[in-house]
Amino acid sequence: MESIKEKLKSIAIQEFQRDLLNWFSEEQRNLPWRQDQDPYKVWVSEIMLQQTKVDTVIPYFNRFIEQFPSIEVLSEAEEEKVLKAWEGLGYYSRARNLHTAVKEVKEKYGGVVPNTPVEIATLRGVGPYTAGAILSIAYGVPEPAVDGNVMRVLSRILSLWDDIAKPKSRKVFEEAVRGLISHENPSYFNQALMELGALICTPTSPSCLLCPVREHCQAFHNGTQTELPVKTKNKKQKSINLAAVILKDKEGRTLIHKRPSTGLLANLWEFPNMEIVQTIRSEKEQLNEEMLTKYGAKIEVGDILTRIEHVFSHLIWNINVYAGFLVDLEEESESLKRVTQKEIEPYPFPVSHQKMLKYLEDIDAE
Length: 366
Hints:
With 366 residues, the protein is α+β, with helices and mostly antiparallel strands. The chain has 16 helices and 7 strands.
C-alpha cells in the first residue's frame, strides 16, 4: 500500500489549495460562528456540531452565545442553567465538559483560549479534531481538523482505502491534511474541506460535476467515488423496554428526580421510570414496587398516556408512559422533588422526557 507521502506526490498541491479556497471564498454558507474568528465561539460551535447537524445547531448556538456571551460568563454559570441551554441537543457530556474546560481556561489562562496544540489538548472534552479546528480557524495555526467530512473527502481525493471507522485511521488522514494544508490560510482550508464534505462530497451520490477539486480527485478519475470511504458498520443497537410514570399529588405537584452525576444523561431531570423485565407481574405492579423501594413513594398507576421511542447511538429506549397519583412520599431530597407546572420550567430534561411534559395538563384535567 502506498504511503501518504507517495499519494501526495500524485496531486498538484498548490493548484488543489487554490481551487478549494477559491470555491470556499465564494460558496461558503453564512453561519453565525463564521461572523468572526472568536476562539470561544469557534469552540462552542465545534462542540455543538459533534454528532449534530448544522441546521439543528444554529438556533442553539445563537441562544447559547446570547445567554453565555463570554468565557467568563459561562465559567460562572450554574451547571443546571448550562444543561437547560443545551436541552434537546443530546450528548450532554459535551456541555458538562465544555463548562469544566471553560473554568480551567479562566483560571489557568486568564480567560484566553490557548493557542498551542499542547496546551489546548489538555482541556476537558477537546480532542484532536476540536483542537485542530480551534487552532486553525481562530488562530491560523496549520493543524489538521479531521472529522467524518474531511475523511470522506480525502479518501476520495487521494484514493485512501483505510477504514474510517477505525480510530487508528485518523492518523493517516491527519498526515494527509498536514501535507495538503495551506499555511497561508489554514482557517479557510480546513473549513473548506468540511464544507465540501457537507455540501458536495456527500456520503451517497456525491455531486462530482459540481466539485471544485474534481480534477484532483483520484476516485473520480477511477470511478470509485461511491465505494469510498471504507467504513465498517456499527454494532446493532440494544433495545430496552422502560415504563415511566407522571405522578401528581393532591396539590397538583409533579414528582421529578435527578439522574446520577455520571453515566448516560448525567445530572438531567426526569419523571420516575424503570426498566421493565419479563415477569408474571404487570408493568403497573413493577412501577408500584419500584417507586416504593427506590423513592419511598406510594402511588396509584393510571392509564397509559403514550409510547415513546428514543434512539441513542448505541441503544433504543421503548418507553410506556403512564399517568399516576402520588399518594404519599416519605421525603424529598436534592435529587427528588415535587414541583408545580411553573416551577418545572427551569429544570433540564432529556428529549424523551421533554415529550412527556406536554401531558402534564392532561393529568391535571382528570
